[in-house]
C-alpha cells in the first residue's frame, strides 16, 4: 500500500478521534473534558493532514479555527481545575 492510500485512510482515525473527543468534552469531569480537548487537537492534526492530501483548503482552514477553540477550551478547563474548591 502506497503513501497515497495510507493518507486516504487517515480520515477514519480522524473521525474516531473527533467522536471520542466530543464524548470526553461532554463529561462532567474537568479532567475528562481537558483530555477531550487534547484528543480534539489530535483530530485537528489528522483532519488537516488529510485535508492537505485531498487539497480541501476549507477543511484545513476549519481545522485551524477549531484548533484555536480547542486551545481556548484547554485553557478554560485548566482554570476550572485550579478554581474548584477542594
Automatic annotation (TrEMBL):
Q: Does the keyword Membrane apply?
A: yes
Q: Which UniProt keywords apply?
A: Membrane, Transmembrane, Transmembrane helix
User: Where does the sequence pass through the membrane?
Assistant: 7-26, 46-69
The yes or no answer to whether the keyword Membrane is present is yes
Q: What is this protein called?
A: Amino acid transporter
Taxonomic placement:
Bacteria, Pseudomonadati, Pseudomonadota, Betaproteobacteria, Burkholderiales
Amino acid at each position: 500500500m502506497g503513501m497515497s492510500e495510507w493518507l486516504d485512510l487517515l480520515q477514519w482515525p480522524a473521525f474516531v478521534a473527533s467522536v471520542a473527543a466530543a464524548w470526553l468534552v461532554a463529561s462532567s469531569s474537568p479532567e475528562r473534558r481537558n483530555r477531550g480537548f487534547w484528543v480534539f487537537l489530535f483530530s485537528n492534526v489528522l483532519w488537516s493532514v488529510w485535508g492537505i492530501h485531498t487539497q480541501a483548503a476549507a477543511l484545513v482552514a476549519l481545522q485551524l479555527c477549531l484548533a484555536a477553540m480547542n486551545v481556548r477550551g484547554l485553557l478554560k478547563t485548566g482554570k476550572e481545575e485550579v478554581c474548584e474548591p477542594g
